[in-house]
Amino acid sequence: xxxxxxxxxxxxxxxxxxxxxxxxxxxxxxxxxxxxxxxxxxxxxxxxxxxxxxxxxxxxxxxxxxxxxxxxxxxxxxxxxxxxxxxxxxxxxxxxxxxxxxxxxxxxxxxxxxxxxxxxxxxxxxxxxxxxxxxxxxxxxxxxxxxxxxxxxxxxxxxxxxxxxxxxxxxxxxxxxxxxxxxxxxxxxxxxxxxxxxxxxxxxxxxxxxxxxxxxxxxxxxxxxxxxxxxxxxxxxxxxxxxxxxxxxxxxxxxxxxxxxxxxxxxxxxxxxxxxxxxxxxxxxxxxxxxxxxxxxxxxxxxxxxxxxxxxxxxxxxxxxxxxxxxxxxxxxxxxxxxx
Length: 340
Prior knowledge:
The chain contains 8 helices and 13 strands. With 340 residues, it is an alpha/beta fold.
């Protein structure tokens, strides 16, 4: 009953705050040489929101830019979904409802999807499925916002792989039977052995009774045992990226040789080079997030937005979005860009 219908990405908007932490700042704060931050970590700069700017504020600004880009009235929206950072304005806070209220999407339902940094990629599968089975869902706004820069302690060398975290937001509008930028299939690999390796250990039910005695360091994102995590994670992570991407491509009816653009999570350049080589592509077939850093689930959508604006992402391209989230998950969704 759904074969004659499709769901496509109508438009994408993004917002980043004016404050920045550049490679020099991160180098001085962490003691890591600037050239390593810039060339190995792939960080020219990340954006940093001020204390007065919240996660919902940034999400609202990105949402308004998406609405403007698509020429969509907020009253046309049937649903507003938040799939960004779980570190939000408040503990146990409904960010989706707040953004819906801020943009005056009075006719929309709202809810949230959380899967750390792979939530944005996987939200495409969830929402496409919902929109195909419920014909009332014609336009859905999805927002990812992050202020996880607050949670990064540059003095903690064990968390150095998270020094690329930057603040900002992206929003995209999905439309039923749009006939362009069509969402195809998705694949995810999950390895739960890593579920407790990275966390903000001082906050949560496990340590609730010790909250008053919480160590200053436990307010930040921390790695329980970085050597042990790397020993288990390093041998499998690139392979799991390939498995997720190749499976999503196959499920979508294509071959790796058909891929024309990669929209990735922010990652070190050497890993991205390996992924591009896997598809026989080059830097001309992606957008390097060196001026954004890692903006949680927003990365892939910023890459598509910037890639299209620069002429790198073209009509007819098979797009591989790929992301990973601590926990650990690797996810990929395929998009056929341009008109059907």
